[in-house]
Amino acid sequence: MNSRKRLLRWASGIMIALGVGHLVILTTIDWRHVSGWADRGMWAAVPLDLSGSAVRTAESLQNTVTFWAGLGSFAVPLALLGGLIWRLAGRGVAVPAWVGWGLAVWCVFGGVLLVPSPYFVGTLAGLLVVFAARKTERGPAPS
């Protein structure tokens, strides 16, 4: 396996682990609210009240937080991006450096705002994508 493919596989593995791990941990910790969505029939199980007219209880706020920390968070897109990069690496397709920079910057800001957090591990995944893109720009390594 060449070094570019190895870097991209590591980056994608980190992204998939962060996304899936986030959902698994949240579901485990707050199963009561997640399972409550199915009990309420799913439709509008997490109401979005933009008018501010609804009475907010601690229970309804926790339900909303559970949604935005789980399915409504970037956990699903991050895992999907990781899967896409894994697939592209397997086919030998270069991933642009801007994808890595975007991921790295997002994860640095997220990590600074939410300390301690695994956001900083996502920064590593972004930098691995950048390093892999640089290896692509330099061309194949001589044999």
Could you describe the 3D structure shown?
The protein has one domain. The protein starts with a helix and ends in a 5-residue tail after the last helix. Helix content is 71%, strand content 0%. The protein is an all-alpha fold and 143 residues long. The chain is elongated and about 60 Å long. The chain has six helices and no strands.
Short description:
InterPro entries: DUF6463. The protein has 143 residues and is mostly helical. It has helices at residues 3-29, 31-39, 58-69, 75-91, 97-113, 119-138.
List the helices and strands and how they pair.
Elements: H1 3-29, H2 31-39, H3 58-69, H4 75-91, H5 97-113, H6 119-138
Helix pairs in contact: 1-4, 1-6, 5-6
Overall pLDDT metric? 86
Question: Pairing-aware structural class of the strands and helices?
Answer: mainly alpha
Order of helices and strands: HHHHHH
Total individual domains: 1
How much helix is in the residues? over 70%
> What is the rounded Rg?
19 Å
The N- and C-terminal alpha carbons lie at a distance of: 13 Å
- Biggest beta sheet summary: none
Strand content: under 5%
* Envelope shape: elongated
Low-confidence stretches: none
Q: Could you tell me the number of beta strands?
A: 0
Number of discrete helical segments:
6
